[in-house]
Design goal:
Layout: H1 2-13, H2 19-31, E1 50-52, E2 63-64, H3 80-98, E3 102-106, H4 116-128, E4 131-137, H5 143-150, E5 161-167, E6 172-173, H6 188-205, E7 208-217, H7 225-232, E8 239-244, H8 263-274, E9 291-299, E10 302-305, H9 312-325, H10 335-348, H11 351-367, H12 369-374, E11 380-387, H13 392-403, H14 411-421, E12 425-429, E13 434-437, H15 438-456
Parallel strand pairs: 1-3, 1-12, 3-4, 4-5, 5-7, 7-8, 8-11
Antiparallel strand pairs: 2-6, 9-10, 9-11, 12-13
Helix pairs in contact: 3-4, 4-5, 7-8, 9-11, 13-14, 13-15
Bound molecules: iron/sulfur cluster (SF4).
Iron/sulfur cluster (SF4) binds near residues 290, 419, 420 and 425.
């Protein structure tokens, strides 16, 4: 009897799909506008999209041009209990409306202004709500902060894995050791230093990590994008994400003709850095006017896509992945459990194994066996991303019309509405039970929210052990 009960429990645990996750994706697909229901669309097929926190710690201690936060953001005190209370409410709503699993950014001002304990508690709250958290930072903190975040007071590991997105670009002023970077190249030692801290964390404490590198792109650093990729691709970042600057947030910090760095121009520079064409239609995250993504890997200094968009056999692999594995949650699932679930799908659909082996053989041929051997079969997965926020002057009216149920006629506003409807990046408002696109948060809601927070959490002089005194303003793309 006990054995039967155990087998039943095992059967339940290894079921390939979580029905709540599958239902959430079905809802997501239904809600997408037709413009986003493309063959490569990930939303509704393998995920519900990305999420972010807001109003939890708006302050930052670097100055950036541009900064997407409102003027009041830096007048709000960083406060652990407030952060935790807000995150709990926001995560609860995200779970309710978007299902049990998602990637969520712990984002606001600068995350390392939270004490390591407060930061760790915030990550734990997010995990408790089925969220895979990623902390957004300018990266200007030390080993000591990272160690105290990863380990509890008794020196035991709090987390098996940490994810960070670090923002580095020459428009961020006030970084220790390089207050005003003259160019992108001069930041490379800081990019390397940041990644090295996580290697040490793994070596000394066994805590794994995922690192993303973020960079705002304006006409002022467009021609440096390719070199950043070439110089930094092997530092340890699993993602290079570029954000063409938008006229959003604090208008005192709009210093350039941002729109001259067009999405096509930025993507072309990313391709130049990767040394190959990057097909962003194989997989899509929401609207491609907002997000372009290319998934692949490096062998040595050459980057290869997982799937070749020009090869119909590879596109068939994508379609089979969505069909048979799309509803499976990969992130946060222990490897043994994931392997068991995959085995069950393969057992039910043996053709998936054949498809996978053929794809593997093709991919090895593409890279070249010799090259793989020369690099001791070392493969580094690196994803390239471009996320283009929209300007406040179109987001505000387009959103207002959407609230009234009106469809815009004017082409720019119509495009904005389509993009907002397919938004990949949501923020939660527990006070009224709604979700809003991050563009709307920054363009419409942030000013009043931060003004209210300024009263709720008046600024007091707070010094953290790892940073110099606060009091400057601004943040990066966030
Ligand atoms: S936040 Fe704005 S730019 Fe980003 S995916 Fe959503 S609508 Fe598009």
């Amino acid at each position: 009897m006990r054995i039967t009960a155990k087998l039943r429990a095992l059967e339940r645990a290894t079921r390939p799909y979580d029905t709540a996750f599958a239902a959430a994706m079905e809802r997501r697909w239904k809600e997408l506008p037709d413009t986003a229901k493309t063959p490569g669309q990930i939303l509704g097929r393998h995920g519900v999209g990305c999420e972010g926190t807001h109003g939890v710690f708006p302050k930052c201690n670097l100055k950036c041009t541009p900064c997407y936060h409102s003027r009041d953001a830096n007048q709000v005190r960083v406060d652990g209990p407030h952060t935790h209370e807000q995150i709990t409410a926001q995560m609860r709503l995200l779970r309710e409306l978007r299902g049990p699993r998602a990637h969520t950014q712990l984002i606001g001002g600068e995350v390392s202004l939270l004490t390591p304990d407060d930061h760790a508690a915030a990550l734990a709250i997010m995990r408790d709500h089925g969220r895979e958290p990623m902390s957004f930072t300018h990266g200007d903190f030390d080993d000591d902060y990272l160690t105290r975040l990863a380990l509890g007071p008794d020196d035991t590991r709090r987390f098996g894995r940490l994810s960070f997105a670090a923002h580095f670009d020459k428009f961020m002023y006030g970084r220790r050791g390089i207050e005003r970077p003259p160019d992108e190249q001069s930041l490379n030692p800081y990019r390397a230093r940041f990644a090295a801290m996580f290697r040490r964390l793994r070596r000394e404490h066994g805590v794994r990590s995922f690192l993303a590198h973020n960079m705002t792109v304006t006409p002022g650093n467009l021609d440096e994008v390719a070199a950043v990729i070439r110089d930094c691709h092997a530092m340890g970042y699993g993602m290079f994400s570029f954000q063409p600057a938008a006229f959003l947030g604090d208008d005192r910090r709009w210093k350039e003709k941002f729109r001259e760095a067009t999405p096509d121009a930025v993507w072309a520079e990313i391709e130049r850095g990767a040394g190959t064409r990057l097909d962003y239609r194989v997989f899509e995250n929401g609207d491609v006017r907002c997000n372009r993504t290319a998934y692949g890997f490096y062998v040595g200094h050459r980057w290869y896509p997982f799937l070749d968009g020009d090869d119909p056999r590879d596109l068939a692999v994508r379609d089979a992945f969505f069909r048979y594995f799309g509803k499976m949650t990969f992130t946060g699932t222990p490897p043994a459990l994931l392997a068991a679930r995959i085995t069950r799908v393969v057992a039910r659909h043996p053709s998936t194994a054949v498809t996978a082996f053929r794809w593997l053989a093709r991919t090895i041929r593409r890279v070249g066996l010799l090259r793989l051997v020369r690099h001791r079969m070392r493969v580094r997965t690196v994803t390239f991303v471009m996320h283009q926020f929209m300007d406040a002057d179109v987001v505000a009216p387009a959103w207002e019309m959407m609230q009234r149920g009106e469809q815009a006629e004017e082409p720019r506003l119509r495009e904005t509405q389509e993009r907002l409807a397919a938004c990949h990046y949501a923020m939660a408002h527990p006070e009224n039970g709604t979700l809003v696109p991050a563009c709307v948060q920054h363009a419409v809601l942030d000013p009043a929210e931060n003004a209210a927070l300024r009263t709720l959490l008046p600024f007091v002089e707070v010094r953290t052990p790892t940073r110099r005194s606060p009091g400057t303003s601004g943040t990066s793309d966030r």
